[in-house]
Amino acid sequence: MNGGALVAQSLKRHGVEFLFGLPDTTILGILDAVRAEPSIRYISVRHEQVASMMADGVARATGKPGVCISQCGPGALNLLYGVASAFKDSTPIIAITGNIDSKYVGRDAWHDMDVPALFAPVTKWSTRITDVRDIPAAMDYAFRLAVTGRPGPVHINIPIDLQNKEATAAVPEPALAGWESKPLEPSQDDIDRAVRALAGAERPVIFAGGGVIWADATDALIAFAEHTGIPVIVTDTARGAIPENHPQALGPSGLFGSPTATRALKEADVIFGVGTRFPDVSTAKWQDISPAAAIIQNNTDSGEIGRHVPVAIGIVADARRCLEAMLERWEGLRPRQRTDRAARTAALKEAVDAELASALTTPPGTHDRIPIQDMVRELDAILDDETIVVMDGGLFQLTAARLPFYRPRSYFASIGLGVMGYGLSAAMGVKLARPDRPVLVVSGDGGFQMVSQDLETAVRAQIPVVVVIYNNNAFAAPRGHQQRSYGGRLIGVNHTNPDFAELAMLYGAEGRTVRTIGELRPAVEDLLKSGRVGVIEVHGE
Ligand SMILES: Cc1ncc(C[n+]2csc(CCOP(=O)(O)OP(=O)(O)O)c2C)c(N)n1
Ligand SMILES: [Mg+2]
Question: What is the pTM of this model?
Fold first, then answer.
């Protein structure tokens, strides 16, 4: 077996169904072997950044690493984009890059760059293979590392000569083969202290992060919340961990959340952070966490505990095991609880609902084009809890992210890095992994235009996602800053766009234009049902 076949066999062994990439000479050994492996579907993209974000989509939709591949030089630079986004949002990706022949690596030859060094700051492990027989063990370690502790991307660089080289001597068995990891158990002492602190609290909140989703702990979260009556705030990677119409669900806090959830966080005397690193985006760079609050933090990665906020009780454990142990202990202890908890939670929930309604209320005045509030309100009315929403970044997102979500793995966005172009790209990975669920992208015109060439990929590979573009012919996010902070002196923020419906049709997709809000529902419903790739341009203001 040659190096390429060893890679393909490893992907197969790890149950990889999809590989996303863009071919070049330095990866042809691997691609040739993948071509011969019927269980793996290889899909070429038109820009490598789309491949890494598709892998991100697969990972977030399934909980298993997504895999992408590119050549070594410019391809690797493009691939890096989605890998970096995944790193910031704790998403496991296996990024594979090829390389020039080993004997020229590091000699400033054509395409030669120190690719492992480029990937190092945005991966958990970035390595170059120097012996073909190391491939299986390196791949196994990569798959293991990507999902253990705080999940994240890993990168393996494989020179082309090793892909083509036969492994003549015996290939060592990967040391990790056959070893099953078990969820990390919490210490009973930590659980005891946490339960007592929470039970005695006057204004407690549960602050649930992406770790709850990765640990499949949403049932445990809901059970614990219901038993204790404590309100739940979620981070942006944990949307839907508790249905957002649940009487105790306050939705997200911070930049994309409600002022009430933020206030509940600020006023809390005890904060139970579960499966979270306390992201800056949810906490106004940690300023929304009172220095007087007692913080309980659960994370499966001990390095994340106390990293951003001082922690009174740290619980290093799998989020599910932590929540289950907390509930068990709470039931055993039957702690005396404050009786005003239910009334406080109900008041918070009422305020969150009222705020959501006002966030989606159209500002007064005349509107020549469709206000963002109208579009999001209408989407809220149209979408059911089956539909997965993948969101791009931009000013529109501040309103669009207010859409409520009711199930885990139903909302994905590039939060920590905030990359433009994430919407269509990640959505394609999500749809491949979850063909049973409708997938809708909400994007700005700027973000969509960063990856619009990959409509061709969606059409060719028959990935029926529907993209709603809120077209304001501008990079409105920086424009807003210029209006507020630079005396309205605009530079570089207004532009023109093609007719997006026409563009979609040129690519062989369906295209619709929405000029009045009433046209949105039929367009979304028809296209989601059509089984085809669809683009809906909304004339935004
Ligand atoms: C690759 C990249 N470049 C620049 C930015 C900074 N940025 C954030 S939002 C934005 C404008 C997005 O425009 P659009 O998609 O049209 O959404 P809008 O702000 O108009 O709602 C820019 C330039 C970014 N996040 N990512
Ligand atoms: Mg725009």
Answer: 0.97
With helix as H, strand as E and coil as C, how does 344-369 read? Answer: HHHHHHHHHHHHHHHHCCCCCCCCCC
Which parts of 4-58 are beta strand (E)?
A: 18-21, 41-44
Task: Name the pairing type of β-strands 270-274 and 294-299.
Answer: parallel
Q: How far is CA 235 from CA 112, 183, 275, 286, 413, in A?
A: 40, 22, 10, 13, 12
- Strand duo 232-234 + 249-252: pairing: parallel
Question: Does residue 445's CB lie within 6 angstroms of at least one atom of ligand 1?
Answer: yes
State how far the alpha carbon of 431 is from the alpha carbons of 162, 406, 440, in Å.
34, 18, 9
Between 180 and 121, name the one with better pLDDT.
121
- Domain finish residue from 356, 390, 421: 356
How far does the chain reach from its first CA to its final CA, in angstroms?
58
Distance of CA 133 to the CA centre of its chain: 34
538 lines ligand 1 (CB under 6 A): no
In this structure, the answer to whether residues 348 and 406 fall within a common structural domain is no
Helix (H) or strand (E) run with residue 399 in it? helix 395-400
- Read off the pLDDT of residues 376-387 as tens digits, 9 standing for 90 and up: 999 999 999 999
CB distance 444 to ligand 1 below 6 Å: yes
Q: For every residue of 99-110, which 3-state class applies, written as one string?
A: ECCHHHCCCCCC
| Ligand 1 nearest-atom number relative to CA 444 | 15
According to DSSP H, which parts of 268-318 are helical?
Answer: 280-283
Nearest Cα to Cα of residue 81 among 54, 114, 60: 54
Provide the domain limits for residue 228: 188-356
Query: How many CA atoms within 13 Å lie on the side-chain side of 540?
Result: 31
Q: 376 and 311 share a domain?
A: no
Number of domains in the chain: 3
pLDDT of residue 431: 98
**Residue that finishes a domain, picked among 180, 207, 227:** 180
- Longest alpha-carbon distance in the chain: 76
Question: What mean pLDDT value characterizes the chain?
Answer: 96
Cβ distance 172 to 133 under 8 Å?
yes
Residues with CB under 5 A from ligand 2 (ion): 444-446, 472, 474, 476
What is the residue with the minimal CA distance to atom 23 of ligand 1? Answer: 475
Residue 327 shares a structural domain with residue 251: yes
Residue 442's H or E segment, with its range, is strand 439-444
Report whether pLDDT(196) > 80: yes
Beta carbons of 253 and 282 less than 8 angstroms apart: yes
Q: Could you tell me which of 150, 183, 185, 148 has the C-alpha nearest to residue 326?
A: 185
CATH of residue 404's domain is: 3.40.50.970
9 and 133 belong to one structural domain: yes
Tell me: pLDDT of 175 over 80. no
